[in-house]
Every structure is written in structure tokens, then in C-alpha cells.
Amino acid sequence: MPPTTQPEITRHEYDVVVIGAGGAGLRAAIAAREQGKRTAVISKSLFGKAHTVMAEGGAAAALGNANADDEWRVHFRDTIRGGKFLNDPRMAELHAREAPERILELEYWGALFDRTADGRISQRNFGGHEYPRLAHVGDRTGLEMIRTLQQRVVALQQADAAELGDPEARIRVFAETAITRLITEGGDGDAPGRIVGAFGYRRVDGGFVVFEAPAVVLATGGIGKAFRTTSNSWEYTGDGHALALRAGAGLINMEFVQFHPTGMVWPPSVKGILVTESVRGDGGVLRNADGERFMFNYVPDVFRSQYAETEEEADGWYDDPANHRRPPELLPRDEVARAINTEVKEGRGSPHGGVFLDVSSRLPAEEIRRRLPSMHHQFKELADVDITAEPMEVGPTCHYVMGGVRVDADTAASDVPGLFAAGEVAGGMHGSNRLGGNSLSDLLVFGRRAGMGAAAYLDGLGGRPDAGAVVDRAASEAAAEALRFLKQGDGENPYTLHAELQETMNDLVGIIRRGPEMERALERLDELAERSLMLSAPGDRVYNPGWHLALALPNMVLVSRAVTAAALERTESRGGHTRDDHPGMSPEWRRVSLEVRSDASDRVTLTRRPVADIPAELLGLFEHDELAKYLTKEELPETVAADEAAEEGQS
Amino acid sequence: MSERVFRVWRGSGDGGGLAEYRVEVNEGEVVLDVLHRLQATQTPDLAVRWNCKAGKCGSCSVEINGHPRLSCMTRMSVFEPDEVVTVTPMRTFPVVRDLVCDVSYNYQKAREIPSFAPDPAKKPGDFRMQQVDVERMQEFRKCIECFLCNNVCHVIRDHEENKEHFSGPRYLMRVAELEMHPEDTADRRLIAQDEFGMGYCNITKCCSEVCPEGIRITDNALIPLKERVADRKYDPLVWLGSKIGRRPKDTPPVPNVGRYSNRT
After folding, report:
1. Range of the structural domain that residue B141 is part of
2. Which terminal Cβ of chain A has fewer Cβ within 10 Å, N or C?
3. ipTM (interface predicted TM)
4. Of 3.40.50.1480, 3.40.50.11270, 3.10.180.10, 3.90.700.10, which CATH number belongs to A262-397?
5. Nearest CB partner across the interface for A105, out of B30, B46, B124
6. pLDDT for position A638
7. A-chain residues within 8 Å CB-CB of B103?
8. What residues of chain B lie within 8 A of the CB of A147, using their CB?
9. What is the CATH number of the domain that holds B216?
């Protein structure tokens, strides 16, 4: 057991260090290893427990198995619509093009997706997707994906054992290890230095580790633990977002936080646990206390033409989608979450402050158990509710952050040399709102690209930089910093501070936002940042959760500052950012992404960056009327602008 | 809200004992909620492994009043109003601290099983499989790797010496899954018996009883695997074939995977 006072540090050398062992991290590590790079995977949890296991509905990919009309362009269009045209168009394009290949590759590695009658991968309907598009396994798709990637890593280790005599020769998983600092070298004023390593601690024995490595892939997931009501697991403390900021990278779109419309609301201890969108994709409907299917009242203008206006038309869609418009329960998540919020606020909520989600009257009990086994189990075990016989009570829960490290779409490179990011910790792909099912495919597409990007970066370096001295110096500083919390005997309880942070973000920067409340949140966050330096974690270094929380809290506070500052700046409502005081969507703001950077004392600054234009041939996928609702006049394509002028002339 | 007595095992690999706490419990809570309240209000360094708190990741396995369970799926309402709740770490694996065990045994066993091996002539996208055929393995792939089945299995629970030669229900089930995969070409039947200890299992079904996913491990995985092993070893046609020089193509053990190290 390492003593509290003596910071011994174990040293490792790798080509690529992947931080995070969820879908993106494992896919990145596999890609880097397949490029011949010695790769370390760092996981805060045990191998195979990542937050990805909680993904339920499926992975979106235009395989065209369920409807032959589906193709990547349609998926691209749905993604851009879902993100309200704020997506990085190149990322959305790569994602839509490559997702089918990535899914088939998983199957080739042993994943067992549900099947169509002709033996192909079955696909299910989901919010915002024009065709049934989600490859799935019941409602536990994320688990299948993690297990398959985990087993693929093992297969590669077996190959290395046979070839090199050591299963960990080229890819090794460091389980229950957390990174607290990225180490850079060089850089001045404006230009950040390049990556030379990473420092962290082993949860199991509290020992410190330092990795000397020229390339780091961040795949740390999201930030949900900064909010009180969340579907996210304890790991989601924004580590990667914070590490990137402190290394000098920029984060974009941090104001966009997705509140999933359907989380459990009762009993209190399970509040926030996810209820998969598949319930609605497979026919479930939302009703208020009066029994009304209220979503018909909430179809926004931009989606009016694609969604049904009567229950009859909506119900006809499941069997005959060509001749019916979609049920409004399948609007993108931001729309549904806001609608539920309004119903509850206006007094039409369920007994425990949610609304009713009913699948019991829509499908036979046997079919519900087959398609939604986890949901059936979850409600029976945790809430004494039999979803085959009665409705569920659901309400919004913090689920996903669209914002993250600004990266190059093709290589996943950030603007810190040697630093890459993929999955939820990267920003841009999903614009202002992510469609369900686009996360699992995002992890695969950009996880692989990040692993390959890191490998290509190494090849371009032409030799390993000798940064041993820099790494050692930074590591001993970081070790002293980490040990501080164990010695501040009279400091604050980290659990109390965490609860206050969650309350602040939930109440003041939640699903509906107002300027003065966010200003108050920023003041509170300043205070929490100071207090987070004075935390005290009693006990020693062996598996000490109080200490681990104390080390994660400054990350959560920094990321919360980024979210709040960007949310206060953006004076419009779009996707996962709703301003009560600025309810409209502004074409001018559509052209802007806010980029957050931080200084040495974790204070954040904002700059405005232009959103890249959608290439003309892809812009052609959208009708002129639709584009006119999002874009400024001068952005509309010439032909469209000409049409409009002609129309104006006629009228 | 009510107050409860919790006895929680505190200690390390060197030893420890039960510590008693009086703690608040609210409606609808699970055992993990109460352990978290202990951390937040009484003992911040209480070591508990957990992730999702939704029964999906299989991290929070412990023994509650002697029963192997996920603490996130054990509701407080299952106990009598004045029942003392005793929480101890899994017994089969070495304790790291308090309720956290070193489960690396399981990762070692996973690494010894020859991986999925499709026909090299096939490419991604070539597979055609019927739902009825994949459903058998899908049941096994519901496994969240909580390791409660391996923890409860008497072959290793009380016999440390068997660990080297026995993969436990979790990984014998993994072998069964691969053997049933319509696109797999390897044959792990012989090593299931000789390397992974299939023969140690005497189908007491303890593993199936504790599975939080309700997987019928014994009936649907282990017994069918035993039957396949028997086919491989005692099938007269295989015996005849071996006599005339047509040897079965048994997949050999994976070389050099050695002992799993939690090396630092």
C-alpha cells in the first residue's frame, strides 16, 4: 500500500494512450493497435463496464435492411435536421457514410444483432430518423457493442500472445485507472504545446502512474454528473473535457446539453434512470393526466410537414410509412423533452411529476417482453410497475452533451498537437441536438478515425520525442497536487460540494434557461471552484471513493463553467439550449459556434467561430422552404434564392 | 423515512470485520443508495464498486445477508422492517478493500477462450442468420459480467485450488455461446473439458439462481455444452474416423496467455 506521503510513480511508455474504454475508446485502441502502434487503454472502471453499456435503443446506420430506400444521404439529412443545422457537416457526412461498414464489422467480430426475416440485421424506428435505421439487440444494444469490442481486444491480445509471447505486448488495458493531467511540452502564448504524456492514479491501490506517449486519444464520454437528475453513471465527470481545456484545446457547443425526454421519475432513488426511446419507436405513446396524446400540440413549424396531425394518421404509420406521416412522439428529443416539461409545469402531469408513457395498450404483453426486456425488468424490479399492464411515469433527465473538443472531422485531431478526441467528448457531430441512435454509430466511426489519426500523427513525427525530463517533472507536480486532499484534515466534504454543484446546474442551467439565473450560476460556480481546492478526503489511498470524488470535482466545476458561460452568451433557443428569455431560433446564431477555452486558474473565455457551410450537393437534399427556416437570406443557395425571388415576384 | 441498522464489512486483504451503522432509509431505495448515504454522511472512504446503478453494468456485486446480489437491484423493501442488513464482499475473490474485490481471475479466464473464428472466406456483411438461431446465444450475451455466478459456484467458492483448472459458469457459458454461433468455425469442445473444467460442474444450478439477468445458465448453456463435449469424446463415428486417420479438428488452447496479472 503506497503511503499518503510518498508519491512513488510507475512509469510506462506507449505510442498511443487512449483515455476511456467505452465504445469510442475501445474502437480507437483497436484501430491504433491494428496500425501497429503500442497502445494503452485507460479505464476508470473495470474492463467492459463503461457507460456505453447503458445505451439501449441501437446504433443508427443506413444499411437499408428494413427499408431499401434508406441510404447515407437520408441519414445525413436527418442528422442535420435533428441538430438544427449547427452540425459540423463533414462529421455528419463521414458518420452517415461509414456507419454501415462499422456495424457490419462489429457483426464480423461476433456481435449478434436482432435479425430480419431474410437473415440480415434488423433495424428499428427512432425519433428523427426517416426510416427504420437502428441496428439493435432488444433494448441492450450498448452492452452488445461493449462486449464485442472487449472481446475483439482480447482476440488481438491472443494474436499478440501467439506471435510475440505476451498478450499485452501491443495493447493493454489499465482498468480502474484515472487520468488527472495531460502533459505537454513547448508551446507559447497562443499556440499550445504538444502532447508528451499523461498522469493518473490507480483506484485499486492509490498508486500513481505516468505514461510517456506522444499521442493521446480522449474518449472519456460526458459530463452528466454535474447535474442532479441524470441518466449518466458516476464516471461522467467531464474528465476529458477538462483535460483538453487545461492542455490548451478548445471546446465547442458546450451550451447544448441533451435532456432525454423519458427518464424514470419514481421512486426518488431511481429518478433519472433512462427509459429507452425504443418504447416510442415500437409504438409507445405519451399521455398527460387528462389522457390526452399531447405531442400533437407540440409539433414545431420546422417539422410540421413531416409529422402526423391525427392519432389515426400517426397509428397508420407503423405499418404503412409510405402513406402516413410519423407520430409526433418520434420528434427529436429536444422537442419531446420540452413538451413534457410544459405539460408538467401547466398542471397536467402524472402523480409523481412526469407524464405517462404507455406501451401496454399498444402491443401484446409477450411482444413487449421480447422487444423491451430491460425496460420490463427495470420497472418491475425498481418501481413495482408492470409495463405490459400499466403505463410508466417519465420525465426529462440529463443524458448527453453535444459539446466537446473541437476536432478535425477526418482525423479527430484537436488543435493541441498529439491530442485526439472521439465520441461524446468530441463536439460538432451532433450540432445542437443529437438524434437517438447516432451516438453508438458516432463512437464506432470516430473512434476508429481517432485511432488511425493518432497513428498517422506518430508516423509523421518521424521519431519519438525525448521528453522524459518534462514528463517526470510534471508527474511529480501532479502527484503532490493529488495527495493534497488526503492531508487537508479540516477541509470540506466532497459529497456535499458535489450535491451543491448538481443542484446549481439542475436548477439554474437546466432544461429551460434564463439570463439572470445563469449569471447567478456563474457566481456560484466561482465560489464552488474556490471551495473545490479545499476539499478533504479522510482515509488512505486504497480504493478511497471520497478521494476519487475530490479529484474529479474540479473537472465538473470547470466543465459547468464552460456550459454556463456559453449558454449565457447564446441569446436564442436551439436544440439542447432553450432560453425562456430568447425563445426564437435565429439564423444569425446558426452560423456561429461558441468556443470555450480556459486559463491557468480554470477561468473560461469565449470566442465565436463560423459554422462550416454544408457543401452545395448536400444542401440540395433539402427543400427550399425548409432551408429558408434555418438559413439567412444570403446563405440560401442561388437557385433557391432565385426561386424565392420569383415567388415573391408572382405574389 | 426510517432508520435501519447496517452491518458492513470493513477491511482489506489482511483481514477486517463488520462495522455497524445506523442510517436513514427512504421509500423506494435500494441497498446501494444506503451505502452511498453512508459514504456521504458517515464514512467517506467506504469502498464500494459501482457504475450505472441501473442493473446494467454488473459492478456492484456483493453479498447481502449472505445472498450474492447486485446492491443496485436489491430494494430495501425486501427486508423485514426491523431486519438488520449485513453487506459483505464476494467471498470467492480476494478483497481489495471493504466491499471491493479483485476480480482479475475472471479476466484471465476470458483471455484463455479461443475467440470467435468466422470462415476467413467470408467478409463483413456476408453473414445471414435467422432470429431463432441467434436467440440462443443472445440469452447468454445478456450477461453483464457481475461475476455472481462464478462467486457462488462451489467448485471455486470453497476450493481455491480449483481456480487454475476451472473457468466458472460465466466462461463455460461463453464457450457454449461460441460453439452455438452459426458462423463460428472453431471447435472448443475438447478444451472445454480438458482446459476449462467442464467436468467439475455437477449442475447444482446455483449459478442460474443468482443471475440478476435471469439467464438459465445451467439449462441452456452448461448442459448443452456437456452434451456436445460428450458427442466429441464418445461419438462412435468420431472414434471410427480417428481410427482411419480422419482426426477431428480440435481448436488448441491459446498459447502464452499465462496468468492474468494486475501487474503495475
Report:
1. 104-243
2. C
3. 0.96
4. 3.90.700.10
5. B124
6. 73
7. 46
8. 141, 143
9. 1.10.1060.10
